[in-house]
Amino acid sequence: GLSQYSSDPRTEWDLNTYSTRDQVLEAVRNLRYKGGNTFTGLALTHVLEQNLKPDAGARLEAVKLVILLTDGKSQDDANLAAQTLKNLGIEIFAIGVKNADEAELKQVASEPLELTVYNVLDFPLLSSLVGRLTRVLCTRIKEKSNKENADIPVNMGPQLSPTDLKISAVTSKSMYLTWSPPLRPPKKYRIVYYPSKGGIPKEVLLDGAVSSLRLSNLTSHTEYLVSVFPIYDTVVGDGLRGVTSTLPLSSPRSLRVSELSHNSIRLSWKAAQGATQYLVLCSAAPDGAED
């Protein structure tokens, strides 16, 4: 599977899109470069939420690896997003080109860094990494497969996923989430939420015995994407997703004008609930319009 990113990550193809080596190579040849910013943290969150899910071809029993290729320093918190993936047992390999920040690559990558961090001066030099990286990746998959396959039965998918996400008690700055827990209680829940039109994802970790949460300090009149992931010792269950908009802030009403003079007016209005201050703007009417 492959995703490209700048300020908005884009899935090019999922893990289950192609089934042969030739198909994947043809897709790589047809790939169009996506220019722009470097929001690596947002990209890693996109990979977790969109690309490492069963409906995108991620198999529950399979080892999860992410290879990050970047030519710049991240403009958001890549370390926090990377740590979330690593906490879920997902291994990250970081490859830097040209202007990549090597200290950031080492923060993002999994241990041992001598196997997971690579840095080259220009794009053509990436070809020199292919042989070694292939051997390292295959070895890591075999090592992790032998350990994990003994722990997790293949047919546990439905038992690991919560259901029936409900979003209620929505205000201009908060909302309340509830869901039905899976048959097999998770160790923890990871809740991720962010504005649908772009923004830094925020997350909350909950004990697996809890199945509700109030999100607060939200922005008013904003559509939010919400995801709930169950976390087990060696695997992440399929997540629940929801979309809800916070309410707009209440407005002042019934504006009235009184006590007119040659250089002053008095304004009055019905109060807006929750307002602590008011900003009053006034300007002269354009030429020719009624004062």
UniProtKB/TrEMBL annotation:
InterPro entries: ECM_Assembly_Org (IPR050525), FN3_dom (IPR003961), FN3_sf (IPR036116), Ig-like_fold (IPR013783), VWF_A (IPR002035), vWFA_dom_sf (IPR036465). SUPFAM superfamilies: Fibronectin type III, vWA-like. It is found in: Secreted, Extracellular space, Extracellular matrix. Gene3D superfamilies: Immunoglobulins, von Willebrand factor, type A domain. The keyword Heme does not apply. Residues 1-133 form the VWFA domain. Keywords: Extracellular matrix, Secreted. Residues 161-250 form the Fibronectin type-III domain. Transmembrane segments: none annotated. This is COKA1 protein. The lineage of its organism: Eukaryota, Metazoa, Chordata, Craniata, Vertebrata. The gene is Col20a1.
